Amino acid sequence: MALNKLHELGLPNSALLSLTWVTWLAIMILPYFFVALAKALFYLSSKYASELFSRVGLTDSKTVDIPVELNAHLTLTGGKSLSNPSFYRRLVGSLVYLIVTRPDISNAVHQVSQYMSTPRLTHYATVLCILRYLKGTIFHGFFYSAQSPLVLHAFSVAD
């Protein structure tokens, strides 16, 4: 689908692979934003996140520094049941989609996705906290420089 979008824009198939043919290019593909500089690629999902904020009504809300409070303990029975659980499910599904470009929220989204069957107000408040964190870090994404070597670093905490 991404290559079809490139054809619609009149760009060659190699547009995402070889960035030396243009010095500045902005391509909108699905909800992700690719900014190709002369020798780098910046990949973020700010447009999708902005649409998510306006859908929820968080366009003028304050931001937070972390996606979930450190000692937040979510339970199945904590708080009152939501009157519209399908809205909660759509929000969490949107957050799962954002994990592609924002792995920093993966743990928090994993926590709230465990309560999709019977969401409570405490779960919804946690989702709003994640969204406020995203609002404060909306332009965070992946930066790939052509000058740096392609080396994968992975870290794991296994108890």
Topology:
Elements: H1 2-8, E1 24-29, E2 32-37, E3 40-44, H2 46-56, H3 85-98, H4 106-113, H5 121-136, E4 142-145
Antiparallel strand pairs: 1-2, 2-3, 3-4
Helix pairs in contact: 3-4
Overview of this protein structure:
This protein has helices spanning 2-8, 46-56, 85-98, 106-113, 121-136; strands at residues 24-29, 32-37, 40-44, 142-145. The radius of gyration is 18 Å and the shape is globular. A hairpin with a 2-residue loop joins β1 (24-29) and β2. It has 2 domains: 2-44 and 140-145, no CATH class; 46-136, no CATH class. α3 (85-98) packs antiparallel against α4 (106-113). The chain is 35% helix and 13% strand. The protein has a 4-stranded antiparallel sheet with strand order 1-2-3-4, with helices on both faces. The chain is built from 5 helices and 4 strands; from the N terminus they run αβββααααβ. The longest helix has 16 residues, at 121-136. By secondary structure, the chain is of the alpha+beta class. The model is unreliable at 1-7 and 9-30 (pLDDT under 50).
Annotation field: number of helices: 5
Q: What is the rounded distance between the termini?
A: 40 Å
Largest sheet: 4 strands, antiparallel
What is the global morphology? globular
Question: Overall mean pLDDT score?
Answer: 78
Number of strands: 4
The amount of helix comes to: 25-40%
Strand order, sheet with most strands: 1-2-3-4
Give the C-alpha Rg: 18 Å
